[in-house]
Write a structure and sequence with these properties.
The protein contains 23 helices and 19 strands. The chain is an alpha+beta fold. Helix 7 runs parallel beside helix 11, helix 9 runs antiparallel to helix 10 and helix 13 crosses helix 14.
Length: 586
């Protein structure tokens, strides 16, 4: 039957009565539906709702199980329907894509997103089918499924850098998480067109923008050597700055190589005392195991989302896991190379300065003034000045070779403050210059130590320029403290099993309130503050690092207690005065 008299308003009223609204789309696959006439079609086997007036609609061949208003209206089975894209008026809110969450900083207020759990999963939400044995050591953990939940058989070729493709290329895409940004780029930069269509809301375009933004960040002008005259123009020190990218494996290799070739007796890291456990105690093998466990668990589809959402979630999971667990590892590699380097007879005892502002203060700044406040000029300049305080305090102790490992975003600010303090820029190198042997770090350090001072008075005024005595000049760890951190890391490697590192947990009940006043995050409900302490939760609060591991590593809420124990044992020092630092180091 055909009713030619139906117009757009009649169809709209009909849909509203059925509890639906029509969502306009940009194109239609079915050429038969491309018409400017508005018709309502009924047949014995299908219903077609076609509303095409200056706008084309996407036609689906099957109804969603929840869109049963039309079938109830006409007494037909939903599977026998064909209609334009229909969206229910139920209070569903689509999840924000990763790039919008980064721009906004947090999810906007509104109803919670509850995905349709009608997809296929492997195992249950309380068991990780991807890990065969949780009694094995965490450093030896293996993932036994690929990124689509298929079992990896003995002899199968598995790669974590195989391009994401819908076609069989002879290599299984591993369900392990990417270990660095280079692996993310290898996996997703060559996505074929059929997979691009499946990605929701321009995720592939967002990734390409990320790739372009990070291109060359770990290459240009990343190594800078300075000469600092010291007190009275004697004992000239060479300060080598290394700029590293947050998630780059190339930057990790560069930082370790600079420490090896410069042979420093003092090392500055852009960390603070609150991040010692996370980056200097927790082994890299455990960080990789946590990321792989979470990625393998996500591959089993524990939420049971549909296939389209599942594919997009896998892409977001790779990016989020790299950002959560594989960042700032260049500092740990530089420290490991620094500890292993032999000490010469006339060298001063080794010392490490954690020169960055405390992460809790940076978080407070972000909450009060927004995410962009951390990248604005005042905050960057403040952090650069704080790092230079640590570098100059190490130089005043008499260390002739000092290496500072800082983020590329802060490198320009650190350079400016060093020159204000009286340091002289000697050489600048790219990463490729060091890798291909065009520049020698050892020769640059030697030339900086032999350079004649030009501005001795500027070096004498450095404590006044940098504000010594007014604020902290850094957190320092001596040679015995470095040995203690090394032993603690080795103990965690030898004794920690998979189930000791990651365990499953039930997400807390989220209480919905009208608004949150003076705080971020959810409002704790009845009994939320009772019970045993909680660990570090992730993966939709279904996984956590247990509290006993956090305490052994000195992470999260146990970081202040761990640092106080180091200070009490004489392994570490927090001070505002360079004289107190000299006395403690002696």
């Amino acid at each position: 039957f055909i009713w030619p008299s139906f117009n757009a308003h009649d169809v709209h009223r009909l849909l509203v009565c059925a509890g639906m609204t029509v969502e306009p789309m940009q194109n239609a696959r079915n050429p038969r539906m491309r018409t400017r006439n508005i018709k309502f079609l009924l047949t014995a086997s299908a219903i077609g709702l076609v509303c095409l007036e200056h706008t084309r609609y996407w036609c689906h061949h099957r109804a969603h199980p929840r869109d049963t208003g039309i079938s109830a209206l006409f007494g037909l089975h939903p599977d026998s329907m064909t209609f334009a894209k229909v969206v229910s008026k139920r209070p569903w809110i689509d999840p924000l894509p990763l790039h919008q969450r980064e721009e906004m900083g947090k999810r906007p207020p509104g109803l919670p997103y509850n995905p349709v759990r009608d997809g296929r999963g492997v195992g249950s939400s309380g068991v990780n089918f991807a890990v065969e044995d949780d009694e094995q050591l965490a450093k030896d953990m293996q993932i036994r499924i690929d990124r689509w939940g298929r079992t990896i058989m003995p002899g199968d070729k598995v790669s974590s850098t195989a391009p994401w493709t819908a076609h069989d290329n002879g290599v299984l895409n591993s369900a392990t998480a990417p270990m660095n940004w280079e692996e993310v780029q290898a996996r997703y930069q060559s996505v074929d067109h059929s997979m691009q269509v499946d990605l929701k809301r321009g995720l592939h375009k967002y990734l390409n923008e990320k790739f372009n933004a990070n291109s060359g960040k770990d290459e240009f002008r990343s190594i800078r050597t300075f000469s600092w005259p010291g007190q009275g123009g004697s004992s000239t020190s060479a300060i080598t700055l290394v700029g590293v990218a947050k998630y780059s494996a190339r930057s990790r290799q560069l930082a370790a190589r600079v420490v090896y070739e410069a042979e420093p007796t003092a090392l500055l890291l852009q960390l603070c005392r609150e991040r010692v456990g996370r980056y200097l105690v927790m082994p890299d093998e455990h960080l990789a195991a946590v990321a792989n466990y979470a990625r393998g668990f996500a591959a089993t589809n524990p939420l049971g989302v549909k296939n389209l959402l599942y594919r997009a979630d896998m892409l977001e999971a790779d990016v989020e896991l790299v950002q959560a667990w594989r960042g700032d590892l260049a500092y740990a590699d530089a420290l490991e190379e620094f500890v292993q380097a032999p000490r010469r007879e006339n060298d001063l005892p080794k010392i490490v300065c954690l020169g960055d502002a405390r992460s809790s203060r940076l978080e407070l700044l972000r909450r009060e003034h927004g995410n962009k406040s951390l990248t604005e000029k005042p905050a960057v300049s403040m952090r650069g000045k704080q790092l230079v305080r640590g570098l100059i305090s190490l130089a005043t102790m008499g260390h002739r070779s000092i290496v500072g490992v800082v983020d590329m975003e802060i490198l320009a600010s650190v350079t400016t403050w060093l020159e204000k303090a009286g340091a002289r820029l000697m050489t600048v190198s790219d990463t490729s210059d060091i890798e291909e042997g065009r520049h020698s770090i050892a020769e640059d350090v030697l030339s900086a130590q032999q350079a004649l001072p030009r501005d001795v008075d500027g070096a004498l005024n450095a404590p006044y320029v940098l504000g010594f005595g007014q604020s902290s000049i850094g957190s320092f760890i001596n040679d015995d403290g470095l040995e203690m951190l090394k032993q603690r890391k080795q103990r965690l490697l030898k004794l920690t099993r998979v189930k000791d590192l990651v365990k499953h947990c039930e997400p807390d009940k989220r209480w919905q309130v009208a608004e949150n006043l003076f705080r971020e995050g959810g409002t704790p409900g009845p009994g939320a503050l009772l019970g045993p302490p909680k660990g570090l939760r992730f993966e939709y609060d279904m996984l956590e690092i247990p509290p006993h591991y956090l305490k052994d590593a000195g992470m999260e809420s146990y970081a202040p207690e761990f640092w106080e124990s180091m200070c009490t044992g004489g392994f570490a020092l927090d001070t505002k005065e360079a004289s107190e630092l000299l006395w403690w180091a002696a």
